[in-house]
Automatic annotation (TrEMBL):
GO biological process, one term: negative regulation of signal transduction
Subcellular location field: Cytoplasm
Signal sequence annotation: none
Protein name per UniProt: Protein charybde
A Pfam family hit: RTP801_C
Keyword DNA-binding: no
Keyword annotations from UniProtKB, A to Z: Cytoplasm
Similarity section: Belongs to the DDIT4 family.
Principal cellular location given in the protein's record: cytoplasm
GO cellular component, one term: cytoplasm
Cited PANTHER family: DNA-DAMAGE-INDUCIBLE TRANSCRIPT 4 PROTEIN DDIT4, PROTEIN CHARYBDE-RELATED
Length: 161
C-alpha cells in the first residue's frame, strides 16, 4: 500500500489562511455579566428559592439597594480570578441557612465561590412584638437587613502560591 500526499494528488487550491476572518467559537469573547444583570439574576434566584421553600407563604422584604451592592461586590471579588466573574458560583444564605446557589455562567469552569450571607433585620418594629403575636400570622413578614457579608472561596491554587 502506498501513501500519497493529498496536495499533489488533489490540487484543490486550499490556502493556509482562514476562510472566515471573524473570531472562532474558541476566540469569541463571552461578555461578563454587568452589575444590573447580576442583580436581576440574584433577584430571580431568590424569588425561585423562596417559592420552593417554607418561605413561600411569608413575605420577604429586601432593601432596595441590597442586591445592587451585593452584585457590585461580587464582580469586584471576581476580578482577579482566571475566568473572572463567569467562573463564580454564588451561594446565598439567610441567617445561616442556604437559600440559593447558582453558577453565573454554567458553561464556564467554576474557579471560585462567592458566599453572600444575609441576615434578618432585628431593628424593625416587628421585633418588638411578643412571640405569641408573631405566631398568629401565618408565615408573617421577614425583613432582610441592609447589611450583609460576602466572602470568596478559591477552588484552585496557582503555582505562584
Amino acid at each position: 500500500m502506498e501513501i500519497l500526499p493529498v496536495t499533489s494528488q488533489f490540487n484543490v487550491g486550499f490556502s493556509g489562511e482562514k476562510a472566515w476572518n471573524g473570531p472562532t467559537w474558541r476566540e469569541a469573547p463571552v461578555p461578563a455579566p454587568t452589575e444590573t444583570a447580576l442583580a436581576q439574576r440574584l433577584e430571580r434566584e431568590l424569588r425561585a428559592a423562596k417559592g420552593a421553600s417554607e418561605l413561600a407563604t411569608a413575605e420577604v422584604l429586601v432593601p432596595a439597594e441590597l442586591l445592587a451592592r451585593a452584585s457590585r461586590q461580587t464582580l469586584a471579588l471576581a476580578e482577579g480570578e482566571p475566568c473572572g466573574s463567569r467562573g463564580a458560583a454564588v451561594i446565598v444564605d439567610v441567617a445561616g441557612r442556604r437559600l440559593a446557589a447558582f453558577k453565573i455562567d454554567p458553561n464556564t469552569l467554576t474557579t471560585h465561590e462567592i458566599h453572600l450571607h444575609l441576615e434578618h433585620d432585628a431593628t424593625n418594629w416587628t421585633s418588638l412584638l411578643p412571640q405569641f403575636l408573631k405566631n398568629l400570622t401565618r408565615g408573617g413578614t421577614i425583613i432582610i437587613s441592609p447589611q450583609f457579608t460576602i466572602e470568596k472561596k478559591k477552588l484552585f491554587r496557582s503555582q505562584a502560591e
